[in-house]
Amino acid sequence: MKNSADCDVIIIGAGPYGLSAYAHLRASGVNAKIFGEPMEFWDKKMPTGMLLRSPREASTISDPDSRFTLEAYEAATGTKPEKRVPRETFVNYGKWFETQLGSGVDRRNVAKLSPDGSGFEVALADGTKFKSKRVVIAAGVGPFKKSPAWLSDLPADRVSHCYEGRDLLSLGKRVAVIGAGQSALECAALLCEAGVDVEVIARIPELRWIGMHKRLHQLGPISKMLYSKHDVGPIGISRLVAYPKAMYHVPLAVKDPIRKRAVRSAGAPWLIPRLNEVKITTGHSVTSAKKLNGEVQLILDDGSERRVDHVLMGTGYDVDVSKYGFLSPELVKAIRQLDGYPDLTAGFSSSVSGLHFIGAAAARNFGPLLYFVAGTEFSSKELTRYFVRNQPRNGAN
Ligand SMILES: Cc1cc2nc3c(=O)[nH]c(=O)nc-3n(C[C@H](O)[C@H](O)[C@H](O)COP(=O)(O)OP(=O)(O)OC[C@H]3O[C@@H](n4cnc5c(N)ncnc54)[C@H](O)[C@@H]3O)c2cc1C
Q: Which fold has domain 6-143+317-389?
């Protein structure tokens, strides 16, 4: 062991959720450490040129005094406020948020997390080890990308996921984009605008668009009763999912369909004109894909064939905590799961005492707001309240 340091809480991941939790915990006097390159996922994995789907008012990373809002960042740095926030602005905002917290983020990645007596041992790739009474996992959805079985015959250089950091302009002249959600449709628009011959192939019968009931959004106070400012989910559901604490108490049989409805595949309406030149094939799925004479051959379920240079997957992700490679096998086994999601209780506590999950991994119990930046306010406040009320005694939880 090169080095060791005891602390109360270690946070793994310095994306919006980890940074926000760190800000709140530190302000409450909790002895916390955080690991990870700030905003790495947004900076290195999201496509260049993308715009946030979430409205501006739902794109702020929460801090305890609301001093480090998106607006505060724009004012402090002279960044022009845009109606739709560009990815680059959001990345720079997250990095600025980190600098406002002062020193503290350790940019190294966690290689292994293991149980250690009544707490945990966190090992870094260089062999440095830390001990902590509690660990908060805020490691995002990077490892949860969906990979359909028909992809297995394609070489790795011919297929990629919308958010695995490939330069869209390096994919070739003909690209098939699979999926009908925001990331698939936005990547298709970006490719088309760059002169690529692009086709969207989606299983759903026709493309869906978010917020098409424009008039309902323009009724002032009535609209506020129908939709929350986060704009996650349709009329009514939007209000309910804005309260993760209430969602937590709703039985799974009711909240699962609500969650799925709130984040079903759909694009933002501002993408519609940008897709005018894109070929859209809906109601069909790909049944096989292979490399043939230097091209990718796709066969669809109607027997039709496509020849492209690259297949870009916009097929979303399935949370499966066993895919967090840093979790020791003992921990994976001990975490009670609900189809890959950790089964969480108050304070985002998993079944392993002292181990907590925030962000998308918490969405099964606390609802779909936890998939979005807007959920940082609830998660950070709830976590801090829980830690302050439930101080570990004598190293035990
Ligand atoms: C294509 C796409 C578009 C989206 N658009 C929006 C949007 O417009 N608005 C919105 O609110 N949400 C959007 N989201 C959801 C978005 O993922 C979340 O809002 C937000 O990124 C969640 O923050 P997070 O901190 O949980 O995860 P992340 O942002 O993924 O951060 C997790 C961090 O953990 C780090 N990490 C992982 N493993 C380790 C390790 N072992 N050691 C150290 N660090 C580690 C990663 O490097 C990563 O930076 C989008 C998601 C996708 C995929």
A: FAD/NAD(P)-binding domain (3.50.50)
